[in-house]
Amino acid sequence: MKIYWTKINKIIDETSEVKTYLLDRPEGFTWDEGAHTHFALEGFNAGEKPNRSLIRHMSISTLPSEDSIGITTRIREQCSEFKSILRNMEVGHEVAIFKTHSNVPLKREDRNVYLLSSGVGLATFRPLVLDYLEHADNVNQIHSLNIDSSRDFLFTPIFESAPDKKFTSRFVDNREDYYEEVKQLAADKEGFFYIVGSDEFLTQNIDVLREQGIKPEQIMLDKHEQQLPAFLSFNLSS
Known about the structure:
- 21% of the residues lie in helices and 32% in strands.
- By secondary structure, the chain is an alpha/beta fold.
- This is Dihydropteridine reductase.
């Protein structure tokens, strides 16, 4: 396993609680849209065993063409040891990244794509949308739907509807509006539905989609392949 040590080159306050940490891109490090990585703080590998409290599984919110590795995360006032340390880090501080992989690359199979997310989960979809806007080959159109009760919606300049590019985007702040729209989107029985959020959020969305006749193979989750049956297989008979 190769561990890349790199430095923070910029910190962006996206909202009052959400920050993006832009990291220098190490030589030879690359990734695909929709990728996640293990993001670790200094000291995580100082002992015989890794200190898991200093490691988090994070989505990369940038594309390689942006030449910085973006890590976007919510840091509340009451937070974990990891988030507390991260909140106090500054430009020039070192972090580690390793085990980078993409479970949700953009499918280009001439179908519609629906991106369903909760809160900061939208960070996973930012590079997919940028990749699509740069070249829309073999994607009919993309619709993004994000729910965030804080109403501090993320990446609004990017997630702005562009009908000429067949990209539409909606932000809602309540569950009723959100799930009503999911049901409407599921009228497309051929589309791909990407979901990012908490496990509870994934399960609720899958239940709604399956009730509307969407098949498991149309549902894309940011989970390792061996984790997918826990979310999808119990619905296979329905």
